[in-house]
Design brief:
heterodimer; A: 613 residues; alpha+beta; 5-stranded antiparallel sheet; B: 100 residues; 5-stranded mixed sheet
Chain lengths: 613, 100
């Protein structure tokens, strides 16, 4: 059995479909993933920036409170307030009216201040030597109050340290405005602290001293812990040197962001560092080797020159996208597998069907050839006879048909028949083959059409469970006398062409007795009729495929048109039987205008020319 | 082609609608089974909506007619159009059925 669709072709086709669908799928998948990533990044930005804003506000509020409190302490106790046009402020003291607090009062003021501001870890006031010249202190009176457990410890640092030489004092004294120091570690307590240093000036800009409010940065760490955009996101505060002020891991405190993180990106890209140095906000991707990647957000706290950083691990930010990627990849793999399986199945089936169909078609072609071989179709049919001319024509609607005609001459008698088996296709063609053989056999024993019909009928009715039947017209023409005996078994009435006494031609339908189609009822008694043909007269037999040939508009060819066609053929000098058949067929074809032939078209023309022995 | 059949106690009323050609004849097998199963009754077939009948269609009616003969029922055809009636006349089937 020849394979219609080779394995290689099928394989290539499957491969092609796979590749195309794979590409289409990947493209769509890529776009989806890209959009999802964008959406997630956007969402992360919103979320993180909201948290940064929250922490920023809390810390900034706290810093502002310290600044305001320091300012108010200084102005209330050491002089008058002067707000500068640029919004900064310093305390200006009219030394002429200034009633300085006693050293004890200084400590009380500081204590009260710390009571009101729990975040304050300690306060120091470094006075210029001329302010408290009467207090005995080695480097000038420098009161310092610090928390110790639940109480306060007061010391005059001036006894041991010259604060006027320290950086915080000098910076504040020359800057004319309050500044926040970078955080540093308190040696005595080990805490990470930062101070707000506010210079206090007298009239004429003369410096009175510097007020230093020390805060414990641990409070900021608590604020940072209040937000968590992602479960393992790290929220920290760093100073302007990028050293951690607060960090969940205390061992990182005061260590450089870049060094601690060990981020290779930092080392490679300076642009972000520059942005951070300029106090801008932004985000960049950091990684530690290939195992860890994170989104690193930063935003400045302008007041202190510090910044808030939030580091979000990428696997948490893009967890949903990753999950989608995994799920989609699996779906794609499973879909492609299903596709492969179904394609293979489909191809196999298609192959089987195609092979099966091809086999049937080949068989039908052979059957058709066998069937057509049964029908006489060599013309002229009887080259040695001058008295008879005959032509048959058959065109099945399918490869095999249920129509038939047959004829032969025996003992100077011409036996002929035309038939139409019910139904179409192979069943009809088998039935037709049986009829044709029976006709030949029965005709050997009788020249009476009614007898032939009865014999055929009885032969076919017996065991005819399928109730197939065949309409037939059987005729026996005595060539010597022109006497035509015929029996119509439920077939269409033939057309007869007669020569009238005045020499004119008359074409009309014969009106035979109907009888019954062959194979319907066993034992049915058929009746014959007789007419006599004169030389030059003819009979035209056909099946309903002729009269029921449809045009494009579903209009039937009809009996009227058939009569007209025969008359027209005659008028156009059709003389031989073949002329008539060809002429009628071309007229039918003209009528059909290419419409599909729905039934077998069969014709048989018999021309009697007068006996010539 | 459509066949609507109502089975009543003593008779069956069936309406044939459309074109009963070779293809349709194969499609209405199930409907014909119903009619064949009731061949012991009088089966009236309304052919007023039957536009065309081919020899395959005639074959179906012949089967029904024969089954009725065996089981004691009969087939009555009614409301036939002239076109369909002519097919019955040509083939001699007119003699097999009762018409109304």
């Amino acid at each position: 059995m020849k394979k219609i669709l080779g394995f290689k072709t099928a394989f290539n086709l499957v491969l092609f479909i796979m590749i195309v669908s794979g590409l289409v799928f990947s493209f769509g998948f890529g776009i989806c993933l890209y959009l999802a990533r964008n959406e997630v990044t956007h969402e992360a930005n919103m979320k993180v920036n909201r948290d940064i804003d929250f922490v920023h506000e809390r810390i900034d509020n706290q810093l502002q409170r310290i600044e305001d409190a320091a300012f108010s302490l200084a102005s209330r106790n050491f002089g008058h307030t002067i707000r500068r046009e640029d919004g900064t402020a310093s305390v200006d003291i009219d030394l002429a009216t200034f009633k300085r607090p006693t050293p004890e009062e200084c400590y009380t003021i500081m204590e009260q201040f710390m009571d009101a501001n729990p975040i304050v870890y300690g306060i120091a006031i470094g006075f210029e030597p001329h302010v408290y010249p009467d207090v005995e202190s080695r480097y000038g009176f420098t009161p310092y109050t610090v928390r110790s457990d639940s109480s306060f410890t007061h010391t005059d640092v001036g006894q041991v340290l010259d604060c006027h030489e320290t950086a915080w004092y000098k910076d504040a004294a020359t800057s004319n405005e309050g500044t926040w120091s970078d955080p540093f570690r308190d040696f005595s307590s080990g805490r990470v602290i930062a101070s707000y240093n506010l210079p206090v000036h007298g009239y004429g800009g003369r410096l009175v001293g510097v007020l230093a409010v020390v805060i414990d940065t641990e409070a900021f760490g608590k604020m940072c812990k209040e937000v968590a955009p992602y479960p393992n996101a790290q929220v920290t505060v760093a100073d302007r040197q990028f050293n951690f002020v607060c960090h969940p891991d205390t061992s990182f405190l005061l260590h450089n962001v870049m060094e601690v993180g060990n981020y290779s990106t930092f080392k490679a890209d300076d642009s972000m560092k520059i942005k951070m140095e300029h106090g801008e906000s932004g985000m960049f991707t950091v990684n530690q080797g290939t195992s860890y990647e994170a989104l690193f957000y930063f935003s400045p706290i302008e007041r202190a020159g510090w910044m808030i950083t939030i580091e979000c691990p990428k696997n948490e930010v893009f967890g949903s996208v990753q999950k989608m990627k995994t799920v989609t990849t699996w779906i794609a793999i499973i879909s492609i597998l299903i596709m492969i399986v179904s394609f293979v199945w489909l191809f196999r089936r298609l192959q089987t069907v195609t092979i099966g169909k091809a086999t049937i078609e080949r068989d039908l072609t052979i059957a058709s050839a066998i069937q057509m071989g049964m029908i006489p179709k060599l013309y002229p049919a009887f080259p040695n006879r001058q008295d008879l001319e005959v032509c048959g024509f058959i065109r099945p609607a399918k490869s095999v048909g249920g129509d038939l005609y047959d004829y032969f001459v025996r003992d100077e008698k011409f036996y002929f028949c035309i038939g139409d088996v019910s139904g179409k296709g192979v069943p009809a063609s088998l039935f037709m083959a049986v009829i044709r053989s029976l006709f030949r056999n029965v005709s050997l024993h009788s020249d009476r059409p009614a007898f032939i019909a009865e014999a055929l009928n009885n032969g076919l009715s017996e065991g005819n469970d399928m109730n197939m039947f065949c309409t037939m017209f059987i005729g026996v023409l005595d060539l010597r006398t022109g006497s035509l005996n015929y029996c119509n078994a439920g077939h269409n009435a033939p057309v007869i062409r007669r020569v009238m006494e005045d020499g004119s031609i008359d074409v009309h339908y014969l009106t035979p007795k109907t009888n019954l189609a062959i194979g319907v009822f066993e034992g049915f008694s058929f009746e014959s009729e007789e007419i006599v043909l004169k030389p030059g007269e003819g009979v035209f037999l056909y099946t309903d495929g002729v009269t029921e040939a449809e045009s494009q508009n579903k209009e039937l060819f009809g009996e009227e048109r058939l009569l007209d066609a025969l008359a027209e053929a005659r008028a156009q000098h059709a003389r031989t039987a073949q002329d008539f058949v060809n002429a009628v067929y071309s007229i039918i074809a003209r009528h059909a205008q290419g419409a599909e032939q729905s039934d077998d078209i069969t014709m048989c023309a018999v021309e009697y020319c007068g006996y010539k022995a | 082609m459509e066949i609507n059949t109502q089975i009543r106690e003593n008779d069956v009323f069936s309406q044939f609608m459309g074109r009963l050609d070779t293809v349709a004849a194969q499609q209405v097998t199930a409907d014909m089974e119903t009619l064949l199963a009731n061949a012991d009754k009088t089966i009236e077939i309304d052919c007023s909506q039957l536009a065309f009948i081919s020899s395959s269609g005639l074959r179906l009616l012949l089967s029904l007619r024969k089954q009725c003969m065996v089981k004691g029922g009969k087939v009555v055809l009614s409301g036939m159009t002239p076109e369909v009636k002519q097919v019955f006349a040509i083939t001699g089937f007119s003699s097999l059925f009762e018409f109304k």
